[in-house]
Design brief:
There is one protein chain. The chain starts with a helix and ends with a helix. The chain has 13 helices and no strands. It has one domain. It has helices at about 1-5, 10-30, 35-60, 70-90, 95-100, 105-115, 120-140, 155-175, 180-205, 225-250, 255-260, 265-275, 280-300.
């Protein structure tokens, strides 16, 4: 029994990480009743800064560095993805929000194909096609306003862009790992993810048009209830980082663990229903399954 547990420890940690992430999304959704998605992201990241600095003090890994521009690019692209992720968490169902985020493997594969000239293969193209059909089923661009599933054009575009920017950030990490320790790469992201929303709120205090509410919003002093949720969200975010780090650290097969990571879509779907999200229609649910299945094919193809 103990051998089975040890062999699957990476999977268990990934399941915990998925649950942490889904609950963190739930906190963000609850906070969105009072605060802007930009302010929620700011508090989530500023708590993360403390954790990353603690990790940096403990790390003994030293690498040569020297790719500052790429490091900054990773921070900006990752932060833009978070802008859109938190905005969608506030405005559409949690299941839909997480499903859009999981389009990142599609874009990673396409970037690798066009930029790094990596071979995708027949299975890879099948995975991309299935996941793309999943996106179409969720967004339903052919539907009129009366029969639409609740994902309007703005949220659909922002959701897809969230996956795209996440893919840019993750692709850049592939190169940065040669020059920087993982903790320094994470620090560039978390610091940028604190400074950019701070600037957005500063500008948003004077200029915050409705059409740019995903980028600009004024600061609002949180209530006592909001502070509690912020503390819980920050704790869950820290636990997520711990669990996902341990998951890949002890996993025998990274591809299997990456596949298990899609459970956060399932968890978020159920958590969203508990918070009052509408039950997804059959075609939207089919779209979510399509994105998960297509992503799993892409992950399996890279093993």
């Amino acid at each position: 029994m103990l051998k089975i547990v040890k062999r699957n420890l990476g999977i268990y940690f990934m399941i915990l990480a998925c649950f942490d992430f889904a609950l963190m999304g739930a906190c963000a959704k609850l906070l969105s009743e009072e605060l802007s998605s930009i302010e929620i992201m700011f508090f989530r990241n500023i708590i993360g800064v403390v954790f990353i600095f603690y990790m940096l003090k403990k790390t003994k890994v030293r690498k040569k560095g020297g790719r500052l521009g790429l490091l900054i690019f990773r921070g900006i692209s990752g932060t833009l993805s978070l802008y859109l992720f938190f905005y969608n968490a506030a405005n559409i169902t949690l299941g839909g929000t997480f499903a859009f985020q999981k389009t990142a493997p599609i874009f990673i594969t396409l970037i690798a194909f066009f930029w790094f000239k990596e071979n995708i293969g027949f299975k890879g193209w099948c995975g991309i096609l299935i996941a793309f059909c999943g996106v179409l089923f969720i967004t339903q661009p052919w539907a009129n306003e009366q029969m639409h599933s609740g994902f309007d054009i703005k949220n659909s575009i922002l959701g897809i862009l969230s996956g795209f920017f996440a893919a840019l950030a993750l692709t850049s990490v592939r190169q940065l790992r040669k020059y920087y320790a993982a903790e320094k790469i994470a620090l560039s992201f978390i610091l940028t993810g604190t400074l950019m929303p701070f600037a957005s709120m500063l500008v948003g205090s004077f200029y915050a048009p409705k059409e740019l509410d995903f980028l600009l919003a004024p600061f609002i002093m949180p209530s006592f209830k909001a502070w509690i949720l912020i503390a819980i969200m920050g704790t869950l975010g820290t636990l997520y980082q711990i669990h996902i780090t341990k998951s890949y650290g002890v996993a025998k097969q990274a591809g299997i663990v990456a596949g298990v990571s899609y459970l956060d879509v399932v968890f978020s779907l159920f958590v969203g229903l508990l918070l009052g999200d509408d039950l997804p229609s059959a075609i939207v649910f089919l779209g979510i399954i399509g994105i998960i299945f297509g992503g799993l094919i892409l992950i399996k193809g890279k093993k």
